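Let us practice reading a record.
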Amino acid sequence: KDAKIRLWNFIPSMMTTTTLVEHIQTSVDGLASQFSDGMVLEENDEDDEDSVKEEDLLEEEGEARLQIFHPTSDNDDASASASASAVTNVTLEALLIGHEEPVTSVHWHPTLEHCLMSASMDRTILLWTPESLTTPSGEEEGDTSGGGGVWTPLTRVGSAGGIIGGSIGSSLLGFVDALFDPTGRRIVGHGYGGSLHFWSLLNSNNGSVGNVEHQTSNDEVVALNLEEDSMHNFRATPCLTGHFRSVTDIAWEATRGSYLMSASA
């Protein structure tokens, strides 16, 4: 748990037996080279370790970290199944850096293709989108992934460095989880101390929290006209809550008695 989020890309491809053997040999040679480089690194001055770590971080994105080989035919004949193999390259698409404490959960937006939400023990919830979607130029031509390898926080909610409810110890542990509602316009966060937190997307025209626009199709709720560039303005809204210790005093609102106030230890 290093407070980072890694997005992995699964790319299927086909390889003949000859190409497969050559590819495996190349991978083995590469691992051997990395091992020898690591042995040399231990003999170097410790002052160079920071620069090496930065280089490793840059090389991490897009690098093949895992490959899955499996035959394309169910035939028991070895010659038939060995003629070609399906290969799935698992590469690191992006490294998301923004949280200061371990990440506890991640969830994709229910309707937007390139929007990821993460909750962390640093008492914040971040919404991430590819940098290419947040710049005026938009996506690069031919880029269908929307990522380009660089994802940035679009918005942040929560209470970084503050209190989110519950005992002092549990409050410092931050959020256990965070979820979107089916429309993707509301967020609920769950703290370790049992506290719940709601945020609603503001209307772009007047800055108010509006009604959720939706349509019913096959009993599913679908958000309307929701885009990545509109997901940056969330406001905290009232939610289910309560005291975590004994109540010491209660009093009605003095002028009209429209609400009840309570104090707790």
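A brief commentary: The chain has two domains: 7-94, 98-237.
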